[in-house]
Amino acid sequence: MEKNLKSMEEENKQIEEKNDALYMELSGLSQALIRSLSNIRLPHMQEPMSDQNFDNYVDTLTHMFSNKDCYQNPENRALLESINQAVKGIEV
Known about the structure:
Elements lengths: L1 H35 L17 H13 L7 H14 L5
């Protein structure tokens, strides 16, 4: 039983280390995305992308890119193209 407990503790430690590494990678990607899109304003959003509105901004982007109707509007099409160009250099 003690051996199983030690094994589980070691497994939990490894999972925590992997989670920490993934969190650091996500943080770096988030900052790269914020830098790349800092000059691009989205419709219905008052401020440029930042740490404070990151989730909301990404939700809006996801909706825009998954909604085919957005591509019908020439203004949105130009915006989506400028976003594509801005994030092109981000390495994942």
